């Protein structure tokens, strides 16, 4: 369920802010519809690059057979399409793996800080390409949570990569953290990823974590997006008893904040 709540935002106001908490109350019929939609969407997403590949193969076997320049150009495009299909399949598999284990809580004690740092380091080449400076404001001391390292890497990869993709080229992305209390008064460790790009209009906020939901499909594809990243983020956070806060002032940027119960607080009863 999506709960619009007046919480203080990174922008100092309470506008355009959406807190997503994950208590599934979806009726069975709606679940069936969503499943059918998902299969239709996934098939469509895979068909598009596949159709492009078939088209180029036909052209290479026919009109472009003896044109070396065209062949090289087409092979480059085919390679990009094949990469896109591979990424989509990877994301679909990750999503189904996380969904299947939704009710099993990850139980390894992990320090969040080196995980976030590793993701930032791995994304430096993309940041350089986009001419974006990543500023990191994280504590020097460990922050332990009960988690799954690989899933947490995926989660922060998605959030920081989105900030680099949809943030303004030539600007900065700030990755910061704070210890606070959640709405039910329990301690919560938060990692916020803030960009200074085009931001997100309020009507899109409640749907952003739906599978294949994109504000601008062409834009997302041009950036190599599959439309599954935030859905994966939602499911990973759900499994970690976490929550996602999305804040944005359109035209000024967006902040995605992941909140986690620290390890010592995990044994509190489920709400
Ligand atoms: P994608 O693979 O398309 O990036 P995501 O699930 O990660 O898929 O994001 C869904 C959509 O949310 C994106 O297509 C984009 O329209 C929007 N979005 C995500 N992050 C941001 C951001 N930081 N700023 C603006 N829009 C964003």
Automatic annotation (TrEMBL):
Q: What are the protein's GO molecular function terms?
A: ATP binding; phosphoprotein phosphatase activity; phosphorelay sensor kinase activity
* Annotated catalysed reactions: ATP + protein L-histidine = ADP + protein N-phospho-L-histidine
Q: Which residues form a coiled coil?
A: none
Primary subcellular site in the record, as a coarse category:
membrane
Task: Tell me the Gene Ontology biological-process terms attached to this UniProt entry.
Answer: cellular response to phosphate starvation
Q: Where in the cell is it found?
A: Cell membrane
- Signal peptide as annotated in the record: none
All copies of the Histidine kinase domain together span 41-264
Annotated Gene Ontology cellular component terms: plasma membrane
List UniProt keywords, sorted A-Z.
ATP-binding, Cell membrane, Kinase, Membrane, Nucleotide-binding, Phosphoprotein, Transferase, Transmembrane, Transmembrane helix, Two-component regulatory system
**What protein name is recorded for this chain?**
histidine kinase
Which lineage is the organism of this entry classified under, starting from the top rank? Bacteria, Pseudomonadati, Pseudomonadota, Alphaproteobacteria, Hyphomicrobiales
Residues of the whole record sequence present? 180 to 450 of 450
């Amino acid at each position: 369920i999506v709960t619009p709540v007046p919480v203080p935002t990174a922008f100092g106001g309470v506008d355009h802010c959406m807190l997503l908490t994950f208590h599934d109350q979806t009726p069975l019929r709606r679940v069936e519809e969503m499943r059918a939609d998902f299969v239709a969407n996934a098939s469509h997403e895979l068909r598009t690059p596949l159709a492009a590949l078939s088209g180029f193969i036909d052209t290479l076997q026919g009109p472009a057979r003896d044109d070396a320049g065209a062949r090289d150009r087409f092979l480059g495009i085919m390679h990009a399409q094949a990469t896109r299909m591979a990424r989509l399949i990877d994301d679909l598999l990750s999503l189904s793996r996380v969904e299947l284990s939704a009710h099993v809580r990850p139980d390894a004690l992990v320090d969040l800080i080196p995980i976030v740092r590793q993701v930032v380091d791995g994304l430096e080449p993309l940041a350089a390409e986009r001419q974006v400076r990543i500023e990191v404001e994280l504590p020097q001391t460990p922050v332990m949570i009960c988690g799954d390292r690989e899933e947490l890497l995926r989660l922060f990869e998605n959030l920081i990569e989105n900030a680099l993709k949809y943030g303004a080229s030539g600007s900065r992305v700030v990755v910061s953290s704070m210890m606070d209390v959640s709405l039910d008064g329990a301690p919560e460790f938060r990692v916020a990823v803030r960009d200074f790009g085009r931001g997100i209009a309020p009507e899109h906020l409640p749907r952003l974590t739906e599978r294949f939901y994109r504000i601008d499909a062409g834009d997302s594809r041009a950036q190599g997006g599959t439309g599954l990243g935030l859905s994966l983020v939602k499911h990973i956070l759900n499994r970690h008893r976490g929550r996602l806060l999305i804040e944005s002032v359109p035209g000024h940027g967006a902040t995605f904040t992941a909140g986690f119960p620290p390890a010592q607080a995990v044994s509190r009863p489920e709400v």
